[in-house]
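[09:14] KT: can someone run the structure on this one? pasting the chain below
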Amino acid sequence: MSRARRPLAALGLIAMVALISACGSSAPAETGSGGNNSAANAQQAVRFAECMRNNGVSDFPDPGASGKFTIDGIVNGSSLNLSTPAFKQAMSACKDLEPAGFTGTKRSSQEQQAALKFAKCMRENGVPDFPDPPPNGPLIDTSRIPSAAGRGARSIPGFPAAASKCTAIYSGELGVRGQ
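[09:31] RB: done, structure tokens below
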């Protein structure tokens, strides 16, 4: 990546961090009991799918019975195109309904190593309970950060500063590209 594109990549990752933290902020925290949270997650996923269809992505599918799905799972094997203006507009319009973890992607082994370094950086810079991201999950999933407790990452003191610092360090390694 050229030096001129690095600031754009960092801004792109910061935007992704903000989007993911905003999406996770209204998601109920997972518990060992399943039950109500699974039902609530499934209902939220159905509302999100309906919103996407109502906002121009007519082929957007409903989630499976578990209510869990990711953008990668939706796009793989379908004709949906994430780059279309209609898809981007629908994502923006429906962001408050987006299920936690929806925007996760599978990283390459090099990107996963960078993601683990990013998580360590977050822990060392003010978010001590920041979890290591799974290879197939989002980089930041606020439902997995105990100190967010269903309130979202912005409720964690020091989160924005840590995210900014760690994003600046690892954006190139994470494969983030400028728009």
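[09:33] KT: thanks! The CA atoms of residues 63 and 69 lie 6 Å apart.
[09:34] RB: yep, looked fine to me
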